[in-house]
């Protein structure tokens, strides 16, 4: 019960944080050329993910795959940024800070992932496959 409540709180915070990415998208579309178009495209993915995380709050076990995707996507994003931080010394600090943030988000979501249930609603048996 405590784990599910913690997951719901994390999902609300992340959902609202990710939806806040709509502001940079609007600013880019309003005044194109000031930012990289890749940033606006990346924010659009996170805004969409934030919306679906908020929808999933009603029944997290039913949206287990979405929560797992959100967790693993953030871990992969953090990994790519960590690798990118190796080369450009000028942007290394920002990349490493973002790496830590996205890494914590990903690990947190994976750690709070709802337990997989069988068709009968019972916890699924552990298998080696």
Q: Can you tell me about this structure?
A:
By secondary structure, the protein is mainly α. Helix content is 68%, strand content 0%. It contains 5 helices and no strands. The chain has helices at residues 2-19, 22-30, 37-56, 64-84, 92-111. The longest helix is centred in the middle third of the chain and has 21 residues, at 64-84. The mean pLDDT is 87.
Architecture blueprint of SSEs:
Blueprint lengths: L1 H18 L2 H9 L6 H20 L7 H21 L7 H20 L18
| Total beta strands | 0
Using only CA atoms, what is the Rg? 17 Å
Strand content: under 5%
Instruction: Give the mean pLDDT.
Output: 87
Shape: globular
Number of helices: 5
User: How much helix, percentage-wise, in residues?
Assistant: 55-70%
Helix and strand content put the structural class at: mainly alpha
Largest sheet at a glance?
none
Distance N to C terminus: 28 Å
Uncertain segments of ≥5 residues (pLDDT<50)?
A: none
Order of helices and strands: HHHHH
Structure, briefly:
The protein is mainly alpha-helical.
Defining traits:
single chain; 129 residues; mainly alpha; globular
